Amino acid sequence: MTTTAAAADRDILAALTEPLLTPPDSTSAKWGQSLAKGAPGVTLLHITRAATGAGDWKTAHAWIAACLRRPVLSTPGTGLFFGAPAVAHVLRQASTGPRDFERQITTLDATVDRMTERRLAAAHRRITQLERPIFAEYDLVYGMTGLGVTLRSRGDSHLLRDVLTYLVRLTEPLRGLPGWWTDIAPSGATSPHYPGGHGNLGLAHGITGPLALLALTWTDGIRVPGHQEAIGRITHWLDAWQQGTGTGPWWPEAVTPAEEHEGRSLQNGPLRPSWCYGTPGIAHAQHLAALATGDHHRRQIAEYALLTCLTDPQQLTGLTGNTLCHGTAGTRLLTHRFAARTTDPATAARLRTAADAITTLTEPLAEAGLLEGTAGTALVLHTLTPGRPATTRWDSCLLLT
Fold first, then answer.
1. Is the model more confident about 190 or about 161?
2. Mean pLDDT for the chain overall
3. Distance of CA 48 to CAs 43, 95, 219, 249, 333, Å?
4. Phi-psi region at 197: left, alpha or beta (left = phi > 0; alpha = psi -120 to 50)
5. What is the C-alpha separation between 109 and 396, in angstroms, rounded?
6. What are the residues whose beta carbons fall under 8 Å from the beta carbon of 118, sequence distance 6 or more?
7. Beta-strand pair 254-255/199-200
């Protein structure tokens, strides 16, 4: 990163962080336990700042207290980004500082275990009954992939292996379509525009989320029967939907039944280059899979796809905000994490240069949270500031570490 870019990031970071120093006196459970939109995302910012010496633990503790002000939820609708798993993720990052939260973490871990066991049982029943899943069963934000991320943060366990075994089963064909095929639209609701549902390719809600977790755990040495075959089924499907000639490889957001039948996507070109959907997230998951399995050809395609995406002015016009989920912050962070895993120094350098050339916009954000709010943008800028070694793995919730 150039000196000028680093200085600009520091100025923006200071402006973003200042309004988030003091938590509100009262918080609803919905806001206090939403990693996506509420207090946990802000708390991650202050934990990460305190752990690197850029902030103080008093502020971080005040925000942790805001997350714990109401009973932590484990009801339907909770997952890695809301409820017990979200708060557990945040507190586990705080263990890099004063170790005041072992009791709370132990309680939250037990809650997450019970949630995971219930949902695994329901998912296996659904597959046995030959029914199609919804996003919330398997995705990163609400589903089993997100719970797998929470379990992975604790290390190897029988329950993490149970989640991986479920993901292996998810990849097996079901009624003539991929096992992750859903009857709903990308919006999460039924739609006349998606009769027969779709196959989703996004990292947040699609099959590249499970692919990334399967690849990361394989690299960790945590492996289950059928693990590599499941990676192969997903990557083979992604290969079938790889598009692009002059602009480099890209993949559609979703595949409809008609497209699946005809083997041809109707999407005219690549979407915005974001973490949640689009080439960066898909290329990232493919890169993880390639490194895990030693697939050098796939690794090169993923690297070429990301680099051409980030140097294509037409694609970059789709980045219209500075958020983590689908804006400049998320794309920059993903690219730096991607580059750190890239084995060719020249390619890694080109990726970092392309990432740092992306302007971090300064318009005010309506939310304070992680995915689409101020905290997420500030966390990325803090993380990318030169000279600040990583002391937390806060972005493991994004499948980036």
1. 161
2. 91
3. 8, 11, 26, 35, 15
4. left
5. 17
6. none
7. antiparallel
Residue 163 has pLDDT above 60, yes or no: yes
Cβ within 8 Å of residue 62, ≥6 positions away: 22, 23
Kindly list the distances between the CA atom of residue 145 and the CA atoms of 85, 166, 219, 399, in Å, as whole numbers in the listed order: 12, 10, 16, 10
pLDDT of residue 361: 59
Average pLDDT over residues 47-64: 90
Report the amino acid identity of residue 116: T
| Cα torsion 205, 211, 214, 217: sign | negative
Confirm if 249 and 304 have CB atoms less than 8 A apart: yes
Determine if the pTM surpasses 0.90.
yes
Q: Which H helix or E strand runs over 207?
A: none
DSSP line for 272-299: ---SSSSHHHHHHHHHHHHHHHT-HHHH
The residue whose two tokens read 């500075």 is: 322
- pLDDT-above-90 percentage for the chain: 71
Q: At residue 236, what is the residue type? A: H
Find tokens 């192969």 and name the residue: 232
pLDDT above 80: residue 267: yes
Residues 6+ apart with CB under 8 A from 16: 374, 377, 378, 381
pLDDT band at residue 32, thresholds of 50, 70 and 90?
A: very high
The reported pLDDT for the residue numbered 25 is 77
Which helix (H) or strand (E) element contains residue 208?
A: helix 208-220
| 172: its two tokens | 């097996």
Q: How far is CA 309 from CA 60, 249, 272, 332, in A?
A: 37, 8, 9, 12
129's CB contacts (< 8 A; 6+ apart) are none
Compare 269 and 211 and report the one with higher pLDDT. 211
List, for residues 33-43, the tens digit of each pLDDT value. Answer: 999 999 999 99
Answer for the pair 209, 203: CB distance below 8 angstroms, yes or no: yes
pLDDT in tens, 81-118: 999 999 999 999 987 655 678 889 999 999 999 999 99
Amino acid at 177: L
* CA dihedral of residues 95, 101, 106, 108 (deg, nearest 10): -100
